[in-house]
Design brief:
Strand order of the largest sheet: 1-6-5-4-3-2
Distance between the termini: 34 Å
Largest sheet: 6 strands, antiparallel
Strand content: 15-25%
Radius of gyration: 12 Å
Amino acid sequence: MTDHFEMYDDPFKMLILLATFVADQQGLELDYENVPSYENDKFLLENGKFLYKKDQVEITWFQFLGRDIQSNKDLTRSEYNRMFVDCMASVYGVA
């Protein structure tokens, strides 16, 4: 069994922001129950799952974005923020 750590406040907001960027890039409005799928060399986003490829950080949620959110790694707030900034930059080809 994989250990999971609860995520709080800032990492969750950063995940929503990333999902919003992805939806905007696809010309969609973010639907928390049906997060748009997206994949590049930095990360994978699909309904119920986010994977940061560089460090194999996997974040999951149940039914809609934000419900029972869990991560397979216990990162600091700063580490989560760096990870999401890296991902957001990659959506727009900045990184």
